[in-house]
Amino acid sequence: MGATVVKRAFRYRFYPTDEQREQLERTFGCVRYVYNRGLAERSRAWTQEQRRISYAESDKLLTQWKRDPETAWLTEPSKGPLQAALRNLQSAYDKFWRKQTGYPQFKKKFRSKDSATYFSNCFSFHDGQIKLAKQSAPLDIHWSRPLPEGARPSQVVVSKDAGGRYHVSILVEVAIVEHAPNDVTVGVDAGVASLYTFSTGEKVSNPRYEKVDRVRLANAQRVLAKKQKGSQNRAKARLKVARIHARIADRRRDNLHKLSTRLVRENQVIAIEDLSVRNMVRNRSLARAVSDASWSQFRSMLEYKADWYGRTVVAVDRFYPSSKTCSACGLINSDMPLHVREWVCPCGAIHDRDVNAAKNIRAAGLAVLACGDGVRPPRS
């Protein structure tokens, strides 16, 4: 078993002082301004001159903005977060040119998550304490877990979510030891009634975190809708709604982390479906349940953890009829509405719909590894 050095981020909550909070708010505002102005300049250059502005050119523009008396306040925060904003803008354009995302959008106050990136020359790390540039005191971090021994942060991202909570994400290099190889493979079928069903027959119940807090969320949103726009009471009501959303997201993320870690630890090969979640949420009857299940987030966790620990995640073609195919004889049942949870094959096999699908996904995943291609349904 070898050790792989990877860059890993550790996220903690911290509690700023009044002085730190004021300075961070100014920094977030400057970061947002630089990002939006850089986006406006790039859009103008392309619309009027048919040319692209590179990161180097936008960095020179940032220097000019700092020297302009009207925007001299850009010199107040550290230069690192402002340069990072331009790097993020460049990354957004790169993804747009590769057709991975849409055109970059302007950042709006209270509509987007505030964050500021500090490079290694913009913060100090001594005796387990982090002090940002132009701040007199270190951050009061709640160390929920220790950093790896001997780790030195190379980058720090400070953020504030819609619920008013401050977090710091610390990027360090760590050596990860791969899990011992084994010959265990598993197929995973995603669902709504049961969050996931394994080819072993085990079913993971769906916690439905959004449904549990739905009444609280609806009441808070109803109170928010009645508040006058721009008032302090509206700001307080908005904060309550945001904190309920944050509670739901935190609990969901924690559950998915535990489940993905367990699967990667126990199995050498994990076969999953290549689901098109974007299309599934267009169904008004399933949109809320599909979003609450967060299948895309779970797949992302599986893939990067498998890459760390020497495991394999294989995705089966989304059109493969895993639920309709008999895992015993291979016969495809053409008529299989969603309300049918158990069915009997002419060969005599009695199938639970989800377990049967998981078994077929496992077999198809092994076929993908052997053949190097997806598994499509056979032609009629």
Q: Shape from CA axes? A: globular
Mean pLDDT: 91
Main sheet summary: 5 strands, antiparallel
Strand order of the largest sheet: 2-6-7-1-5
Rounded to an integer, what's the Rg over CA atoms? 25 Å
Task: Give the proportion of residues in helices.
Answer: 40-55%
Which H/E pattern describes the elements? EHHHEEEEEEEEEHHHEHHHEEEH
Q: Poorly predicted ranges (pLDDT <50, ≥5 residues)?
A: none
Describe this entry's structure for a reader:
This protein has helices spanning 18-49, 55-67, 79-97, 209-212, 214-225, 232-266, 277-280, 287-293, 295-309, 353-371, and strands at residues 3-14, 114-119, 123-126, 129-132, 141-142, 155-160, 166-177, 185-190, 194-198, 203-205, 269-273, 312-316, 342-344, 350-352. By secondary structure, it is α+β, with helices and mostly antiparallel strands. The protein has 2 domains: 3-177, no CATH class; 185-204 and 259-371, Nucleotidyltransferase, domain 5 (2-Layer Sandwich). The strands form 4 sheets. The chain has a 5-stranded antiparallel sheet. It has a 5-stranded mixed sheet with strand order 10-9-8-11-12. The radius of gyration is 25 Å and the shape is globular. The mean pLDDT is 91.
